[in-house]
Amino acid sequence: GHEAVLSCPSISNVSLLLVTWKRNCSSCCLLSYRSDQNETSKLNCSERITWKYSPASDPALRIYPVDLGDEGNYTCETASSEGNFHFFSSLTVIVPPLVTLTHDKSRVAVCQASAGKPAADISWIPASNHSSEEEFHHPNGTVTRVSYFGWATSSFPSVTCLVTHPAMN
Q: Which part of the chain is the Ig-like domain (predicted)?
């Protein structure tokens, strides 16, 4: 859902003749700019994939909004009077989980971190060996993790579920 910007660094001050971005798969997007004719072209690109700036001044690639299908390896190829250059970028998409905390009548707390990528980590405060965990892998690469904390025999008035994930503070 956020913006991804992949940069294509300039090797020298010589102006670029041609810049091409492509994703490393056969039918993926191809975005190019030819400076001598001030011409841009797109092949198999969605409207979400564009130049971040003017390709003549900065040939960075912009993907907005990013989705899981955008994950992969991208190549920026540049051509100038000094030669041809290739720059490689790898895009990894992370997805924050949806977190819910519920409980049932038998004093079991259920903390669920749904559809995160990678899987979220769940811990309990206070720490206890009375918890168990399940994990469900979804076809789109996301993971739901569920942790159960039984505090029926404990003297704690409450428990706290702590979910940690790279996409969350």
A: 1-92
